Amino acid sequence: MLLLPDGDALYNPRLRRRYPIVDGIPQLLPSSGEQLPEDTHERLLSQVEQAGRTTP
To answer: pTM above 0.70?
Structure first.
């Protein structure tokens, strides 16, 4: 799981799902996750790398 640079969501790159953080609590239920398309996946990974985080 990666914390996105804006701090409002966690991202699972293996599943390509974005999970919101509401009032400081990650919403990790399967129904809370949003499936992301390939272009968004690549953009998010690029943002995370630019922010100095690495993917496992």
So the answer is: yes
